[in-house]
Description:
By secondary structure, the protein is α/β, with parallel strands linked by helices. It has helices at 15-26, 39-47, 49-56, 66-74, 85-99, 112-123, 141-149, 163-171, 186-190, 199-203, 207-214, 219-222, 225-241; strands spanning 2-5, 8-11, 32-35, 60-61, 102-107, 128-133, 154-158, 179-182.
Amino acid sequence: MRNEIMGVSFDNLTLSEAIQKGADLAAGPGFSYVVTPNPEIVNMGREMPDYRDILNNAALVLPDGIGVIHAAKILGTPLKERVPGIDFATGLLSELEKTGGRLFLLGAKPGVADQAAENLKKKYPKLTICGTNDGYFKDSAPVVEKIKAAQADVAFVCLGAPKQERWIAEYGPQTGAHLMVGLGGVLDVYAGNVKRAPVIWQKMGLEWFYRLVHQPSRFGRMAKLPLFLVDAKKESKKRGKA
Length: 242
Ligand code: UDP
């Protein structure tokens, strides 16, 4: 059961339901991937149909932004709750620790994934992090080989959107991993370079505002977000008439 929000079909799951499904996918067989679109990513999908298809072909499409939740309500197809990519990823870490699944960290500036791995190993002592690679490589083939040689079950792919989802769709199946998750700036948070909003801000749906205050360079990207809700309103009127 998926709810279509401005061209992207989201799974209507709670965070814990999503984590459980993620853990099942990580155990294989085969290859699948998870995407965590926020309104900005949905908008990219509206501009690039091939990218929208990549999003919709994911095994799990999780609503990362409060804007997606608002748009879903406006469209009359509400979603159970926001499922932030970082919370999904963190839940998966605990599952991998239990099952012995092997995790590869791909993305961010040189050194960040290593720092993230070091921090995660302290917090999840039984977790196997089987390899890391920064996200500024030119040639993908050696990265594919590295993931394959590491015998990764799961890879967190943090190259920013739309690059990470495109990379996953093109190269993921060649790596032998069972599950890849596109996670944006998550390695920067695990490495301790970027702080998340306090929980109270997250609960109030204001995480985006916290990020804006701390990274003002995001203003240009975020200025488009109110328009997203205006477009959702227009779309809901159209649906009402259909
Ligand atoms: N990044 C990367 N390779 C690139 C471009 C970006 O590894 O070619 C990384 C960047 O260093 C950052 C992440 O991708 O760690 C994107 O973070 P951002 O906060 O923009 O993502 P969001 O969470 O907003 O999607």
